[in-house]
Each structure stands twice: as structure tokens, then as C-alpha cells.
Amino acid sequence: MRFSTAFIPDIHFGAGAVGEVAMLARALGPVECALLVLDGFLAQGGLAEALVADLSSVGIRSRIFSEFSGEPKLSHLRAAVAAAEGCQLVIGIGGGSALDIAKITACCAASGKDPLHYALAANPLPKNPLRKILVPTTAGTGSETSATTIFTGETGKKLWIWGPETKADQVILDPQLTVTLPPSLTAWCGMDAFIHAFEAATNRNAHAGAALYAHQAMRLIIDGLPVAVADPGNLPAREKLLLGSCYAGIAIDNCGTAIAHNMSHALAGLAPVHHGLATALAFEATLPWLVQTETPDLQAAARACGLEQIQDLPAFISDLMDRCGIRRALPAAFAAFTAADLAAEMKAPENQPMRRATIFEVTDADLDRFAESLMALPRTL
To answer: Which of 117, 121, 120, 81 is nearest to 101 (CA)?
Structure first.
């Protein structure tokens, strides 16, 4: 056995931990100005004002950037980079979009390069990015502990920037910040985190160093997700989800994802769709194919789910989605597209790393069949 593991940022966990932002910012070294990248509703809900005051109390001026919605777009990134001029620190607070914007901004503001300069690993990232503190308010992407960022380019296609330079210096996990997430978003984000863990533990790149995190992530999410969906204010359930999502982020940082994420990224290339929902639908569509052949890693993942046989996984996942109220449907905008359109996106160059990482060879015929299955869903969302 031979593997290496990527570094894990300092993680501060607990209810109320967001109150440590200013202290951690001051401890990072000379910082005169910080850019706060926050989801819009957080910026309007009083959290931004409290953080600005806390930072000011330790001698750090701050600016707020919240002019974005949905998944990160190139225009959002360029505006954030401009807002970061003269800053030494970027603090990302929110869902995966806010965190990814913060991570890319920290790199581009330091180098003066456009985000497209780094897209799809076209050029090395700067070795001296701005410092970063990341505070997730959803439990899904795991972006706070991964070296990957996702954004939408000028043509509407999903692009990625990867490198350890994007990773946080400090991570704060405060489950109190997640209790207001609505049940549907809780379910979608939680399934995304679960699939991160499952795919990282079972793909071609899987190794024991990451399985430690991936298997525990699956256990935590299985325990916490149905409870958090049914009772959004249940703090112990939120704690399990947030920690599980973080551990899943560590797992994909080391091993990446696989076919379900190839498919969900392809869906987003056609029309707007929540990433967690797209990934859950893709996972359910591809899992029966994946478990046709046993591997030790698939067996271990099944055991982490409390199952004896990998053949029980599809029914287990479908039941979990049912208990979380996930509707099997696509947004109405997908009515304009066919299975052939989706299959073409799945074969696009930017989605091939996830296809190649899948433990079994994924043929073009497999992609066509998966696309047919997913595009047969109703367009009612």
C-alpha cells in the first residue's frame, strides 16, 4: 500500500465558533484589510455587521462583497477580485458559492491574473495567495477543506480551478449557522456530501488515508440527514451533517469524485440546477450499474452504511432520498434538452477527470444509457 494525503487546514468546530473569526484573522499575521465574501441573505441578516465590528476591534478594516447569487459566475469572480484590492485576507462565509468565490479571489487578487488564466489547470496558481478563512453555512460542498473550486465560464460551461493554493488557512464549523437552511436544501446538500464521501472511497484513486474520513462522513450523514430535514432546528443533527460534510471534503480533496459528479456537472452545463439535487439524481441513476461488480472498496462503503452486501446499496440510497423528501424531477428549463444533449456534455473534456476516476470503465454506451435514464425524469421543479 502506498499513498499520500493532502494537508488539512486548522478546523475550529462548535456552536458559536463564528465568534472566533476576528481572533483567528489577527493570528494570521499582518492584516490591515479583509474582504468578507458573504451570501446576500447573511449580509442582510446582521452577521456581516457583527463581523465588521469584531474585525475592527482587533484593528482590521473590512469590506463586504455579496453581489452574487446561485453558483459562481466569471462576472462574480471578477467583481470580487476588484473588491479585494489592497486586502491581505479573504473571509468566505456561506454556501459553496461563497467559499469558492473567496478561494479564487484570494489567488487572483494576489497574482493580478484573471480566473480564466487558471481554469482547467491551464497555468500554475500563485504561491502567495491572500490568506483565507472559510466558514460554511451549508453542509454539502466540503469546499472549506478541498483544493477544488467550481465556477461557470462565459459560455455557461462549468470550469474548475484546482490547487493547494486555494485551500483555507483556517476553517470554522459553526452548526448554528446551518439551522435556517430549508428542508429541501438540507436534503440536496446532505446528499451531495454523502456522494462526495462514497465516490472518494470507491473510485480508482481511493486509499486508506482518505477512507478514514469518507467512511465516517457517510455514517454521520446517514444519522443526521433525515433528522435535520424533519427537524431543521435539531442542533445535534446539524452537527453531524456539518462535520460529515467537512470530512467528505477532505476525502474528495485526496481522491476526487466519479461518475455521479460527471453527470451532475454535465446537467449544469445544460441549464441551471442545484448541484446537490443533480448529483443525487445522477447517483441514483448510476449506482445499480456501479454495484454489478464487487470491489473491496465498495464492500467497505456498504459496511459503512450498515449493509452487508453492495447489492443493497441502490435500495438503501433510494430509501434515504425518499425519507428526505427528494423529488425525482428536473427544473422546467430541461424540457429544451434531450438525452443526446446530456450525453454530449458528459463526454466534454472538462468532465473527463470524473469519468476516468470511476472504478470501472465508463463507455460511451454507458453514458448514453445514463443520460436516457436521467432525462426521462419529469420537468416539474
So the answer is: 81
Q: So what's the pLDDT on residue 301?
A: 98
360 in Cβ contact with 293 (< 8 Å): yes
φ and ψ at residue 178, rounded to 5 degrees: -105, -10
- What is the pTM assigned to this prediction? 0.95
Domain 10-177 belongs to what architecture? 3-Layer(aba) Sandwich (3.40)
> What would the CATH number be for the domain defined by 183-375?
1.20.1090.10
> pLDDT of 150-160, one tens digit each?
999 988 888 99
Separation of alpha carbons 302 and 198, rounded Å: 9
**CA 24/CA 117 separation, integer angstroms:** 31
HSE toward the beta carbon, residue 224, CA cutoff 13 A: 31
* pLDDT for 184: 97
Burial of 131 (0-12, 13-18, 19+ CB in 10 A): buried
